[in-house]
Amino acid sequence: MKDNTQAAPRHVAIIMDGNGRWAQARGKPRLYGHRAGGRRVREILTACPDLGVKYLTVFAFSTENWKRTQAEVTGLMTLFKRYITREATALRDNGVCVRFIGDRIRLEPKLVEMMDNLEKLTKDNDLVHLTVAINYGGRDEVARATKRLACDVKAGTLDPEAVDAETLAKYLDTCVLPDPDLVIRTSGEARISNFLLWQSAYSEYEFIDTLWPDFSREIFAEILENFAKRERRYGAVAQ
Length: 239
Ligand code: IPE
Ligand code: IPE
Ligand code: MG
Prior knowledge:
about 240 residues, alpha/beta, Undecaprenyl pyrophosphate synthetase, 6 strands, globular, binds 3-methylbut-3-enyl trihydrogen diphosphate
């Protein structure tokens, strides 16, 4: 019989949801949950090389999250800056190549500068690739990509007849990344909330009830074990 089991997913993307509810259950402000959630990123990232995961992408702030209170938005931006300051050296020394996806135009210049610097600092690393989605929305990403593509057509450097899915993918924020093999969402919500719409066309999904601050290396390993049993057919018929 043919062995249809998968190796470890090369690229895992995570919708880190449930920080607010986790804090609320403890009678704490939402930011307390975001801080706890931030700590989980390090734990999961460190587990990746042992588990055979080469690319980890995490959804940190969506294009829709601006609808939250000013206090929460500012608090999250402060956390991102603090995370970069605290983790930069360790990320560099531990072989992590960091990238950010999403539209930087709406982010404060200080944060954008820190993101650029961290990307530069870690660009030659190749043990594990961490991508952080900040002010990221799948539709926004496709729209921005289309705009750039249209500019190239207008400039005469791209033949509209030659445009196919592969061409468009080259204009996405994720152009250098493989598509995610597995997308995990915590907190019990079974929706994708505008995350990696294009890239997850054939991703496997795992929706789990655990709130993100309670996520652990053990839960991660268990999910990867389940993934290994799945059969991915990509539209073909099983052999
Ligand atoms: C996810 O946790 C983190 C962000 C969206 C920034 P939430 O803040 O959405 O937590 P819940 O869903 O309200 O519990
Ligand atoms: C998705 O979570 C965005 C991130 C995890 C950063 P949300 O909590 O914003 O999504 P909805 O509002 O429940 O769909
Ligand atoms: Mg949420």
